[in-house]
Structures are given as C-alpha cells and as structure tokens.
Amino acid sequence: MTKHRPSPSNPQCRQEQFEKLLKAMGIGDSEVDYIDRFATTRNLEEIERHYSLQLAVASPPDRKRVKQYCAAITKVLSLSNKIGPEFFTGEIEKAGWARRNPHADDMTLLMLVEEHGTKRDEVVAVLTERRRDVDHWLKVGSDTYRKRVVTKLAVEPFVRLLIERGTISSSKPLPRSQLAQLVEALFDWLGVEQSFRLTSVALATIARRLANANPR
C-alpha cells in the first residue's frame, strides 16, 4: 500500500510540506503575513494533534486475533449459561464479599449480598455487549473507521478553518479542483495514506454542507 507519511526522522521534509500547505492557503512568510501565519499554524497543529492521537487508537490489530478474542467471549458466555446465572449472583457474589471481609460470618455475608448484591450478572451483560461491538467492528471493517477518522478529524476541521478564514462560504464555493488541491496539501503534511484520501466529489459535498451550516 502506498503511503504518504514522511519519515519521522526527516523533519525537513515535513516542514517543506507544511510550507506548501500554507502557500496553498495563501499564507507567506513575510512580516505582513506574520499574525495570520501564527494563528493558522496553531490551528493546523491542533488538527494534526487530534488526528494523530485518534489515528493511533484506530490502528487496528490483526483481524484473526480479534476473531479469536470474539470466539473466547462466546465460549465464556456459553460456559456462564451452563453454570447458571444464580451461581454468579449468589455464591460468587458471596465469595466476593468474603474476600473483601475475611472475618465476616456467613450470616453477615448473606446480608451483604442481599443488601448490595445484584440479581443480574453484570459481567455477562458487559461481555454480551462487548461481543456485539466486536461483531459490528468485524462486519463494518477497520477501513471504514480509518476513513471516518480522516473525515471527522482532518478534512472537516480543515474545511471549517477555511470557512473561518473566508476562503469558503455558502455564497462563495471553491472550485472543486482548488479545494482538492488544498486538501491534498493537508493530506501530504498529515501523511494520509492514498487509499484513505477522499475524492474531490466527497470533499466538495463536505465543504458545501459545512458552509451552509455556517453561512457567512
């Protein structure tokens, strides 16, 4: 898979890409542009920070291992069902109180279970929900989540920044090619893989939606 993320050990390359992005936005390095450059740099660095943090979280593990994890949950739930929920809400609940109160007698433990215990096995409930979530992730696919991260934490904040700067408005839409060129410069700087980059049509749709939501 082709990647466009510059090497972390090559800060000069990253800086060059950042300068290209600023240039595409119409920001130079003269004294006249100083205030605009400073404010825009901070905004772009904020986009990069949130995008990078979420990208690290969204980096998926091996699908085979996730399927094994899901199968293990299914096995635990099956065993829990065979053992019976009463055992967990009764004996195991009591064992928990005994572990935390080693000197308590049986009557005290039963009273604690009756007063503070639950008739529902919360572990089973949590594992059931976790299995459903993992099943959903496996069906949707990790690529969808990666594309969502690019859209929500890179493209949309950048388009909002362009709207705030007056580059885009509901009455002044950018030509599709110009918008694509701007976002491509952003993608190059952020190191977005080619397969996760949005098309010019998708970018224009996002820009139109956000501009209409923030008319100027």
Outline:
With 216 residues, the chain is mostly helical. It has helices at residues 11-24, 34-58, 63-83, 85-100, 106-116, 122-140, 142-164, 176-190, 200-213.
What integer value in Å does the Rg equal?
27 Å
Fraction in helix: over 70%
How many DSSP-defined strands? Answer: 0
Distance between the termini: 41 Å
The biggest beta sheet is recorded as:
none
Number of helices: 9
Query: Would you tell me the structural class of the helices and strands?
Result: mainly alpha
Average pLDDT confidence is: 87
Task: Estimate the global geometry from the Cα principal axes.
Answer: elongated
Relative strand content: under 5%
Uncertain regions: pLDDT < 50 for 5+ in a row?
Answer: 1-9
Report the oligomer. Answer: single chain
Helix-strand topology string: HHHHHHHHH
